[in-house]
Every structure is written in C-alpha cells, then in structure tokens.
C-alpha cells in the first residue's frame, strides 16, 4: 500500500496472484473509509423488507441512498484495484459485496484447496535450506516471505520456531555464528 499526495491510502492492484495479501490490504483500506461492513455484509434494500405497494419511510430512504453511495464508492475502489485481466470477472457485479465475494470465491479457493496450499507451504518451510553462495539477506527474505504466506493461511509459527529453522538451515559457512547464538540463547 502506498499513500498519495492527499494522505489517503492507495489501493494495491490485484493481478491474479497473492490474493490473500491483497485482500488483507483492501480490508484495511475499506475500514479506513468506513466501508468494510458494507463490503462484507452488503446492505438492505427496501424490496427485501417492504411490500411492493408500500413506500419506504423517509428516514429509511435517506439511509438507503447513503448506503448506495457508499457501496458505489467501495465498488469503485475494488474495480480500480484489479488489473484489466481480472476486471471482466467482476464487471457485471452491481454491489461491492457481489464483486468482493466473486473475487474471494475465485481466488481464495475452497477449504480443500486452502489445505493443500497450506500443506505445500509447510513442506517448503520444512525443506528450505540456504543455497551455497546465497547472500544472507536474500535467504532471510525468502524465508520471511514463506513465513508470511504460512501465517496468511492460518499457520501459527512462534518466533522461536522460525529462528530455530533459520539457524539449522544456514550453510556450514555460518556454523561458528550459529554455535555462538545457540550458546548465548540458553
């Protein structure tokens, strides 16, 4: 997320990858604009509550217009935060909830897909090793990206577990440093 000249948070662009991270960032943006509840739950129209022959009371009509305006703003944020390749999937959605749910359904995956993805990430974490000649910063970046993906899918990793994994997966070049860390840790 970045901030524009007016101090407003700029929505990230989603292009079919990293839906989980994108959705977390978008949720924060919607909350900052007071729109998240509307996007998540939708809003009530009078056709849902009032018989066709009745006219809605003035107070409810004002609330409906406010909700419609807020929903249009939220829908616009969603539409402008997806690439041209993703946009056709939500182009016919008339509410922010509809667009949000469509993207969630298509890119988040069902429970089975998420379990498979989590299992793959767990395996990648367990088998991750520093490559010979790999700069330490690159290795840390790779590991923390993996840790963040795991956490996004609901995996609970303690800092101690992450440190332990990093220490045992460094190349032999770092054995002396690992030994010093191990000795001072306990």
Structural overview:
This is DUF4219 domain-containing protein. It comes from Malus baccata. Pfam families: Retrotran_gag_2 (PF14223). This protein is mainly alpha-helical and 186 residues long. It has two domains: 107 residues, no CATH class; 75 residues. 62% of the residues lie in helices and 2% in strands. The protein has a two-stranded antiparallel sheet with strand order 1-2. A hairpin with a 5-residue loop joins strand 1 and strand 2.
List keywords for this structure.
186 residues; mainly alpha; 2 domains; 9 helices; elongated; DUF4219 domain-containing protein
Radius of gyration: 23 Å
Count of discrete structural domains: 2
Q: Main β-sheet, in a few words?
A: 2 strands, antiparallel
Number of DSSP E strands: 2
Parts with pLDDT < 50 across at least 5 consecutive residues: none
Molecular shape: elongated
Number of helices: 9
Distance between the termini: 39 Å
Q: Approximately how much helix is present in the residues? A: 55-70%
Strand content: under 5%
The residue-averaged pLDDT reads: 87
Protein name: DUF4219 domain-containing protein
Pfam families: Retrotran_gag_2 (PF14223)
Describe the structure in brief.
This protein has helices at 19-32, 36-41, 46-49, 58-80, 96-108, 111-127, 136-152, 159-169, 175-185, and strands at residues 2-3, 9-10. The protein has 186 residues and is mainly α. It folds into two domains: 2-108, no CATH class; 111-185.
Topology:
Blueprint: E1 2-3, E2 9-10, H1 19-32, H2 36-41, H3 46-49, H4 58-80, H5 96-108, H6 111-127, H7 136-152, H8 159-169, H9 175-185
Antiparallel strand pairs: 1-2
Helix pairs in contact: 4-5, 6-7
């Amino acid at each position: 997320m970045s901030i524009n000249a007016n101090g407003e948070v700029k929505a990230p662009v989603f292009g079919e990858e990293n839906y989980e991270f994108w959705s977390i960032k978008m949720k924060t943006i919607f909350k900052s604009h007071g729109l998240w509840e509307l996007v998540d739950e939708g809003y009530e129209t009078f056709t849902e509550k009032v018989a066709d022959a009745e006219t809605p009371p003035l107070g409810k009509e004002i609330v409906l217009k406010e909700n419609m305006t807020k929903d249009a703003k939220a829908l616009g944020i969603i539409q402008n935060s997806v690439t041209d390749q993703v946009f056709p999937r939500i182009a016919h959605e008339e509410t922010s909830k509809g667009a949000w749910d469509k993207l969630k359904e298509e890119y988040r995956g069902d429970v089975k897909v998420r379990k498979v993805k989590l299992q793959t990430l767990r395996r990648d974490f367990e088998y991750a090793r520093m490559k010979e000649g790999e700069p330490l910063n690159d290795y840390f970046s790779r590991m923390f990206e993996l840790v963040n993906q795991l956490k996004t899918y609901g995996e609970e990793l303690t800092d101690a577990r992450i440190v332990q994994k990093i220490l045992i997966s460094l190349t032999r070049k770092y054995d002396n440093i690992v030994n010093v860390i191990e000795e001072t840790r306990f």
